[in-house]
Design brief:
single chain, 750 residues, mainly alpha, two-stranded antiparallel ribbon, 2 strands, elongated
């Protein structure tokens, strides 16, 4: 299909039911035809483990023919080749029904099954080598992860019911003929799935490219792509682990735990449950964060699962439930990781070269999953008869296989973590989302936000995301910045300020600053950028220091105080003394306090005195803003705030104690110090519900001792005493600050 005739995403989505039908029916056919029933069928025929491994490995091994099939696919078209080869592959399974006729000749029985599977594998290779690049044509890019997850969920009930029926049937019947209905049903389902492919769009032939020489020349591009070659190793080694364990876990539990074939088939159905849940969860994360983070996370958990398998034995309590859990986790972790690899390939491969890239990927998976799975069978067979011990650990064939599988998974995860992915979240950042805030609460809210919601509900969800504090919800909040409701947008901006900072969220908040005229949204964005302390946003925030609106000027000053970029200290100092608006001057005072700017102390003291001498009711709370800024510069903010809050609740409760503690710093034989100490103690004893001239004079008398102190803050405390000398009736807040600051400056070091 040429770019000019490319279908819209809407048109592609309308055809997806055919894709779901193809996938579900084909997976059902695999469940009945070449899954656990075939492995158990071969075991009951008396075929050795190494030969069973050969049968299991043949399927992926023939994927190496994917490259050879490239000219055929290009010449006849991906749709036609995928559908016709799929029909042929299930017809090739019919000869396995004759295997029980040769029970006394196991070599012939093996050869019959082997040849059927070989021809089945050839048809499978042609079909999947065509369908894989074709899927890039009809799957919308933005929802590929979600579609794969939905497919797994759609297949889940069929897998469960099918596995249950197979288990009941196999355990209730005798003889090898009981496998026949299972195989026949699988063949019919596979053919029905092939017919669904004819309803899918695209897949037209490209005859000009369908010749051997041109096809081989097209392989040069992917073979020179080092990033893609690294991807091939990672996905191939993961496929090898899946292929080998998918076969030998069944035999491990059957032989070591004595579980019947029917029970194992039923338990193995939990692989499909895990695959559905894992695929859906992985798909959801992939569409939001890319593939690397979720893939490496799932593979890390795989390693723990595989290394834990040797510790499962028949003596464990509820061992059958444990085995079922293992199958579920195997499906969840492995299928989710493999789906991440598939989506990565669909997103990474250039559309005009998809056949060559994906044929190479399909073939390399066959080399790993096919040829090496055969070696896995040989490995198990050899070490079952040549086991060894290391310390207390005993290693038979299965134990060696599990250790090798864990090592391969480690290498696969390490390589995948290094791949290039445009727009994808890195592994560390992805995992970091689960270590901040409440990720479960955030995930719950994300699911709720996808449903129909009212304006109030959307606003509540935005508030909920801010409270959860997890960056998992950042995309929902960023999307809410475009909500038609002003209140929802405002709440989303505020919520982003309560999340750990991310480049994406900061960029969205900076864009909100350009909403000229929407002052409340700009104000909220300035506040949030200050809360996340985005130093990269300092310049953009600083432009609002000269804004005509005093509300935005004051908020920009406070946010710069949170960001603490020293570049803007001069303009904040100028604002403190020169801005025409009183709230802007107070905002500058607050910002300078956050900076800890010692050069501003004199100007702050002067500002405080102006408010303290003003009879306006608003002057008293404004003056405390300045005192709080000074306390931050002096490093006594917490003590000042705690004592002031207590004094405000219970007037006269804190100040006497502070004066007493301050008096205790004046030890020594100096008569002047003793006199000043006595004055402080007397003032403390007489102090009622507020400061008195005596108590204020007793503190100011400490100026001499402060001048002799070697503490770095002593000169600033002296400046505070001198600067407020004209205030005869000091507010309790000033007394508290003087008391805690003087005590800090007079206390002996250490």
């Amino acid at each position: 299909m040429t770019p000019a005739s490319e279908l819209t995403d809407y048109a592609k989505l309308r055809r997806l039911p055919f894709y779901y039908g193809y996938f579900v029916l084909t997976a059902t056919a695999v469940l009945c035809g070449v899954g656990a029933p075939l492995v158990l069928y071969a075991a009951e025929l008396g075929i050795d483990k190494d030969r069973i491994g050969l049968i299991g490995g043949i399927l992926p091994f023939f994927q190496v023919l994917g490259i050879a099939s490239l000219p055929v696919i290009l010449h006849f078209g991906t749709k036609r080749v995928a559908a016709l080869a799929l029909i042929a592959r299930y017809l090739f399974l019919l000869p396995i029904l004759a295997a029980p006729m040769f029970l006394d000749q196991p070599d012939i029985a093996f050869l019959l099954i082997f040849l059927s599977v070989v021809f089945y594998a050839v048809g499978r290779t042609l079909s999947e080598a065509a369908a894989t690049p074709w899927s890039q044509e009809f799957l919308p890019r933005l929802v590929r992860g979600r579609i794969n997850g939905n497919i797994a969920l759609a297949y889940l009930p069929i897998a469960l019911v099918g596995s249950f029926v197979i288990q009941r049937w196999l355990d209730s019947q005798e003889g090898l003929e009981r496998f026949y209905p299972v195989f026949i049903f699988g063949i019919i389902a596979g053919i029905a799935g092939a017919l669904c492919l004819f309803g899918m769009p695209g897949g037209k032939p490209r005859p000009a490219a369908g010749n051997w020489s041109k096809s081989l020349s097209q392989l040069r591009t992917p073979l020179r792509d080092k990033n893609f070659l690294a991807f091939l190793y990672s996905t191939g080694s993961q496929f090898l682990v899946f292929s080998a364990l998918n076969v030998f876990m069944l035999l491990f539990f059957r032989e070591r735990l004595g579980i019947s074939s029917g029970q194992i088939v039923l338990m193995a159905s939990l692989i499909h449950v895990g695959s559905a849940v894992g695929s859906y969860a992985a798909g959801w994360f992939i569409d939001r964060h890319g593939t690397r983070g979720i893939r490496v996370t799932l593979q890390t958990l795989q390693i723990g699962l595989v290394l834990g398998l040797p510790f499962i034995h028949a003596g464990l309590p509820a061992v059958e439930m444990l085995v079922g859990l293992v199958f579920f986790l195997f499906g969840f972790l492995v299928q989710g990781a493999m789906m991440a690899g598939n989506v990565y390939m669909l997103n990474y491969v250039p559309p005009n070269e998809r056949e060559s890239y994906m044929a190479l990927a399909y073939s390399s998976d066959g080399i790993f999953g096919g040829g090496l799975t055969v070696l896995a069978g040989v490995l198990v067979q050899y070490f079952e008869f040549n086991s060894f011990s290391i310390g207390l650990a005993h290693f038979g064939g299965y134990e060696v296989l599990f250790v090798v599988g864990a090592l391969l998974t480690i290498s696969s995860a390490v390589v995948f973590a290094q791949l290039k992915e445009e727009g994808g979240t890195g592994v560390r950042d992805f995992l970091g989302q689960f270590s901040t805030g409440n990720p479960l609460r955030a995930l719950w809210g994300i699911q709720q936000s996808a449903s129909s919601t009212s304006e109030q509900r959307r606003r509540d969800l935005a508030y909920h995301f801010g409270g959860a504090g997890s960056t998992l919800a950042k995309d929902e909040l960023i999307s809410a910045l475009s909500d038609p409701s002003f209140d929802v947008r405002h709440e989303a901006i505020r919520a982003l300020g309560r999340l750990p900072p991310t480049a994406k969220a900061i960029s969205a908040l900076e864009a909100t600053l350009d909403y000229e005229g929407l002052i409340e949204l700009q104000y909220a964005a300035l506040d949030s950028l200050g809360q996340v302390r985005s130093r990269t946003s300092a310049a953009k925030v600083a432009t609002f220091l000269s804004h005509d609106n005093p509300l935005l000027r004051s908020r920009a000053a406070r946010s710069l105080g949170d960001i603490r970029d020293a570049t803007y200290l001069p303009v904040l100092r100028s604002m403190l003394t020169g801005d025409a608006d009183i709230d802007c001057r107070l905002a500058a005072a607050s910002a300078l306090g956050k900076y800890g700017d010692r050069q501003s102390v004199d100007a702050l003291i002067s500002t405080y005195c102006d408010h303290a001498a003003d009879a306006n009711m608003a002057s008293e709370p404004r003056s405390k803003v300045v005192l709080l800024a000074i306390s931050k510069i002096l490093g006594v903010e917490e003590k000042f705030a705690r004592n002031w809050r207590t004094e405000q609740r219970m007037p006269g409760y804190c100040l006497p104690g502070l004066l007493t503690k301050l008096a205790q710093t004046l030890d020594g034989n100096d008569s002047g110090r003793r006199a000043r100490r006595s004055a402080l103690e007397a003032a403390a004893a007489e102090l009622g519900s507020g400061p008195t001239p005596d108590s204020l004079a007793a503190i100011r008398a400490l100026r001499t001792d402060l001048l002799k102190s070697g503490h770095a803050n002593a000169p600033l405390v002296v400046a505070l005493i001198d600067g407020t000398a004209g205030l005869d009736n000091a507010h309790p807040a000033l007394m508290i600050l003087l008391a805690v600051a003087a005590r800090q400056a007079l206390r002996p070091a250490g």
